[in-house]
Amino acid sequence: MKAAILREPGSLVIEDVTRAAPGPQEVVVQIAAAGLCHTDLHFLDGHMACPTPTILGHETAGVVTEVGRDVRGLAPGDHVIGCLSAFCGSCEYCLTGRPSICEGAGNLVCQGPSPRLADGSGAPISQFMHLSAFADEALVHQNAVVKVNSAIPLDRAAIIGCAVMTGFGAVTHTAKVSPGESVAVIGCGAVGLSIVQCARLAGALNIVAIDLNPERLAVARSLGATATVDPRAGSVVDQVHDLTDGRGVHVAYEAVGRADLVESALLMTRKGGLTVMVGLLPPEQRLVLPFQPFVAERRLMGCDMGSNRFKIDMPRLAELYLQGRLNLDAMVTSRITLDAINGGFDGMRSGTGVRTVVTWPSGSVA
């Protein structure tokens, strides 16, 4: 099979790769679509380290073609979405309903006499985030995928796997936004726009979208933002306070991954408000915050993939799309083939579009 391999920072190389047969709890998925995510870009550009060579890609959907023994609830022909939040099902966090921060997922990799993934010379290739989706096929544990309604086009289903799941979970699980509350979102990429949509679904009264890109702000308005803020027009904190009668929002999300924007998010919350860090800060960034806002019981917390329960959440998100209540069509702004993947990441670096999705012939674009 063909795969886009990361051997050194900067670019991916398309090569032939072999995979092992599925182990006892593994499935083989024919990849139909895989979104380009900023998390992939962090590793591609060397801002974050991972074992190499590896096959990046973690936002994906496809069709099951093979299952190993002991696999339950999945069969060839099933349409599935992958999730990097693979879980063991038996650790303290899984058993207390927090599988997104499972501490046993590292033990899910099947051990065998040959590498699970190997290049043309037979050298092993590391699996990335339990998925390695920039390839014709993925060999994954059953607890890294979930079956969804086959009526949803797989290129739309793919973005549920990271961006939409993170946004939905950040609203419903991490912050538990209630009807009538106010929300601000810094960064209107795919994750930020998912937060906007899901805040609307949760009944937020005021949803303020903040971004430098006017096209993304226009999309945000179409998806549910009640107001938009351009940082070039002045202090984003002051603008948000002006939009909320001087009080600030109940919940502010930082969906870019910059320490200075986390501070801005904190300062635009009201007393007792919550700031949720969704963006992934590179390791070299240090977060230094003023103490005074915390005196009024403001809170700051992280968010790991939307505190998800993806086996439950993702099928529901697919149904929301099929009911016309969740707009995924507006978020997929470009489709490319695997051999154009480096160009796709170039577009991401320049801020073009919302979400670029690599598609294979098996992916529906209906």
Describe the structure.
The chain is an alpha/beta fold and 366 residues long. The chain has helices spanning 38-44, 92-95, 154-174, 190-202, 214-223, 236-243, 259-267, 292-295, 310-322, 341-349, and strands at 2-6, 13-19, 26-35, 54-55, 59-67, 79-82, 117-119, 126-127, 137-141, 145-147, 182-186, 206-210, 227-229, 249-254, 269-277, 299-302, 332-336, 355-359. Strands 3, 5, 6, 9, 10, 17 and 18 form a seven-stranded mixed sheet that branches. Strands 13-12-11-14-15-16 form a six-stranded parallel sheet, sandwiched between helices. A five-stranded mixed sheet has the order 7-2-1-4-8, with no helix packed on it. Helix 4 (190-202) links the parallel strand 11 and strand 12 (206-210). Helix 3 packs across helix 4 and helix 4 packs parallel to helix 5. The chain is globular, with a radius of gyration of 20 Å. It starts with a strand and ends in a 7-residue tail after the last strand.
